[in-house]
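Hi R.,

Here are the chain sequences for the assembly we discussed:
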Amino acid sequence: MTISDTARPLVAVHGVGRDFDVSKSWLNRVIERTPRQLLKAVDDVTFEIMRGETLGLVGESGCGKSTVARLIVGLYPPSRGRIEFDGNPQTADAGAWSADVRRRMQMIFQDPYASLNPRWRVAEIVAEPMRAQESASSRQDQLARVAQLLTQVGLSPADARKYPHEFSGGQRQRISIARALSSSPEFLVCDEPTSALDVSVQAQILNLMKDLQERLGLTYLFISHNLAVMSQMATRVGVMYLGRIVELVESAELFARPQHPYTRMLLDAIPDLEMSGRPRTPVAGEVANPVEPPAGCAFHPRCPHANERCRIERPELNQWRGLTRVACHAVEEGRIGNAQHPS
Amino acid sequence: MASALLEVKHLRVEFPTRRGTLVAVDDISFHIEPGEVLGVVGESGAGKSLTGMAVIGLLEPPGRIGAGEILLEGQRIDTLSGEALRRLRGRRIGAIFQDPLTSLNPLYTIGHQIVETILAHLPVSRIKARERAVALLSEVGIPGAERRLDHYPHQFSGGMRQRVVIALALCAEPRLIIADEPTTALDVSTQAQIIALLKRVAREHGAAIMLITHDMGVIAETAQRVAVMYAGRLVEIGPVRSIIHAPQHPYTAGLMRSIPRVGSTGIRLAQIDGTMPRLDAIPAGCAFHPRCPRRFERCDRERPELLTAGDRRAACWLYADDNQ
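And here is the predicted structure of the full complex:
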């Protein structure tokens, strides 16, 4: 690895947006005289992921975090903006990656019951990414590699002959991880990898993911709605609201000194396990309809600090004091005190 | 324990299969007092939902109550069937389930569903029932209740739907509410609102709530006491504060340590190695002993009963007086 390799981000996302057409059918549009409707699932998202780090994306359902994950691995083409992997742009045809780049990234999904083919034995599931590569190795080599991968994720080589239904949720997620690792990727996109698991199993999987990252030098994009899990895993965290990043900062800083009112609200809403009796601001309102997002700052209808400017002008994600980037007029104008979060 | 609203004594839920009977809930006893929220935690498959289903008489065959008694306000309810059981559900016991979409009929307006439920249980006129429906919807925090009555379930957001389900559960002023993972499908900010609502319902209606969840944070915020289940058995029960701060059973202790906390960046989570046993392979003695860091020879031979340990009870031989 040369110096330029370490300085260059592994993944660079520039002003990426993705729209989905949620219009009614053509006939309904004609009869009801309604126009086409576009849902901006992700809008103007820019960030970089450095080699070896874990970038977390956190937000409530519908905020666009999973769409970002799918855009990065190339499952959806972006409507706007561009994505680069280790300096390579996506190919011209609809956001796909060249085979060479594709091999270097893998994805782990949320539901270990839906993401494994129930008719395949574990050996076939885990070896699939190897078979998909052009330089396919011999069957013998593949089986040896499967055994090694299963051991690496804490399963037994004998499990290769079993079917997915013979495993618990946590073990299935281990199989998903083994499959993701089988093409020796550098970058893993993990979309809520533990939210379908029990908390004691979740601890096992999170620890396994950290160990593998250390041992194999992996880079993660880690997506979760759970702030405590995020605080455990991420080096930097991006907070998303209605398709945009509202705050992007080092993990420790985010949890010690959250800036954006939405981040503060999310942190406040976490059930208080310590039972310290800390005062909690009651959470108001719900996420707005993404088809018709509010003008100005999308969070303004729920924000206790919103003023006229917030209702009209959309805040940009600007540098704010050191490494924090935050999209909020109130923070930039100093209208909100720099309250410390008691955690 | 005359004041107990719900009393469960030595409950056993079993599933007969061709290869023998599987015991999913094994000899569980607990009670809930009026106005109290009892949290029930455990991993999936620990038997917490089945316990709730047994109380409300909704066990799916071939599942059945194999032994034990369930008493609501001193009256046996596990032996009821047919019309008597139907009157009990909804009238005296309300239920809130995880997925609000499947608890509501998509083809009827929520007003229709609430009014019909009220009419089924209370001797009131349709007009009075509608008034009560509006009052219930405002009580659970649905803005514009009068107008919202004529909307269908798909016109509500997830959090609002769960409020409708809670309103439905409250229709007939039930004495006991079984809430099975009521906040699991919701986002954190909505979850906080639903927790606050459940607490208010217990306080203002004097209803007892059995809150089944795997989320210890939700229990810490809501419940007064908590029961911890493992492999179909009750392993620890007591005041929520002492169980969170000083768990006695090694399983509870491991569970508490494995919960990630905000601000713990970089620290490795404590994990309990292994998995919970399947129902057909529950070890002899204490079901947790193969995974227990503090086991000794008695643990794989004798099954521990709930033993007093400070202000709570734990099913662990560490707390036997004699420790023979």
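Residues 237-261+268-324 of chain B form one domain. The mean pLDDT of chain B is 89.

Let me know if anything looks off.

Best,
T.
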